[in-house]
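Researcher: Quick test of sequence recovery. Tokens follow.
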């Protein structure tokens, strides 16, 4: 788990390294063992009043695609530096007119052992057409839990940060 100080340093590095005109605002920098994900806000398209929802959605998707193509070389350069420094892959995303899009991100394999009742849950999702495989069904379950437990996970992360602070003050902490 990354400490709050490490997270702040990582976010600060990206805030200082990214060109000023890349994003309107650096929205989020998240990190885990494999990946750093950088999400920034870009301006929405200028549309006439009263356009349909379909036209608005298509315009936003077009703006996101235009940004992705136009900034590819810049983002690759920054990602190479960050991957060398932080030893993690860098993924990119944007928020535009209330819509979020991730361009590339790591899909890390995770091994687990499941008992028969747990495998039956996955097999039911496959039979119901929710997923094509057990791994896809498991990913679906994780996304469902993530969607409905943000508050609980936030509280858990805060508790883990407190544990890290206490450990840092213990007898094995490095002397300054």
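Model:
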């Amino acid at each position: 788990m990354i400490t709050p100080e490490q997270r702040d340093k990582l976010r600060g590095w990206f805030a200082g390294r990214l060109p000023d005109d890349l994003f309107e605002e650096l929205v989020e920098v998240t990190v885990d063992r494999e990946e750093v994900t950088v999400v920034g806000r870009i301006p929405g398209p200028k549309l006439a009043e009263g356009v349909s929802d379909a036209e608005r959605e298509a315009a936003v998707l077009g703006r996101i695609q235009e940004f992705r193509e136009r900034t590819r070389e810049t983002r690759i350069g920054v990602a190479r530096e960050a991957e060398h420094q932080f030893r993690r892959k860098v993924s990119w995303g944007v928020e535009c007119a209330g819509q979020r899009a991730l361009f590339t991100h790591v899909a890390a394999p995770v091994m687990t052992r499941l008992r028969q009742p747990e495998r039956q849950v996955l097999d039911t999702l496959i039979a119901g057409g929710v997923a094509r495989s057990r791994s896809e069904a498991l990913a679906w379950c994780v996304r469902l839990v993530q969607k409905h437990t943000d508050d609980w996970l936030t509280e858990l992360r805060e508790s883990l940060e407190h544990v890290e602070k206490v450990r840092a003050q213990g007898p094995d902490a490095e002397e300054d």
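The beta strands are 25-31, 35-41, 89-96, 99-104.
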